[in-house]
């Protein structure tokens, strides 16, 4: 019997998380940051995992000024803050010491709103994806993270 990609990755210690594809061809994913559920964009091109600066209280983020400058395809460089030693859970995978870059995501949520797409609380970036040894199955819209 032929083994599926899913069963093979499960046998290698990976957990599977369903991804929701939006009208902008981004993936949205639910994640739990400091025990609070939020909606995030999965962004392999983002260096860091980020949260909207307006969500600091919601996610109990303690922040300090940062040297990191945030930029995206939709906006210029802007000031950021950083919050260290946070708990991040994606599916069954978790990190007990995750840094989160905070910046004003209004321009991102405005663009999503214009396309009738639910606003997001943040971005799951390549730092988290690398830590979780991520594999993205674009055919099945699934994210695999190594437990």
Give a verbal description of the structure.
By secondary structure, this protein is mainly beta. It has one domain: Cathepsin D, subunit A, domain 1 (Beta Barrel), CATH 2.40.70.10. The two termini are 26 Å apart. The protein is globular. It is built from three helices and 13 strands, in the order αββββββββββαβαββ. It has a six-stranded mixed β-barrel with strand order 3-4-11-5-10-9. Strand 12 and strand 13 form a beta hairpin. It has helices at 5-11, 106-114, 126-131; strands at residues 14-18, 20-21, 27-33, 36-42, 50-52, 64-65, 70-72, 75-78, 81-90, 93-103, 122-124, 135-137, 142-146. The longest helix has 9 residues, at 106-114. The protein is 15% helix and 44% strand.
- Measured as a percent range, the helix fraction is 10-25%
CATH topology: Cathepsin D, subunit A, domain 1
Number of domains: 1
Overall 3D form = globular
- DSSP strand content: 35-45%
What average pLDDT do the residues reach? 91
Fourth-tier CATH superfamily name: Acid Proteases
What's the alpha carbon Rg, rounded to whole Å? Answer: 15 Å
Widest β-sheet, arrangement of strands = 3-4-11-5-10-9
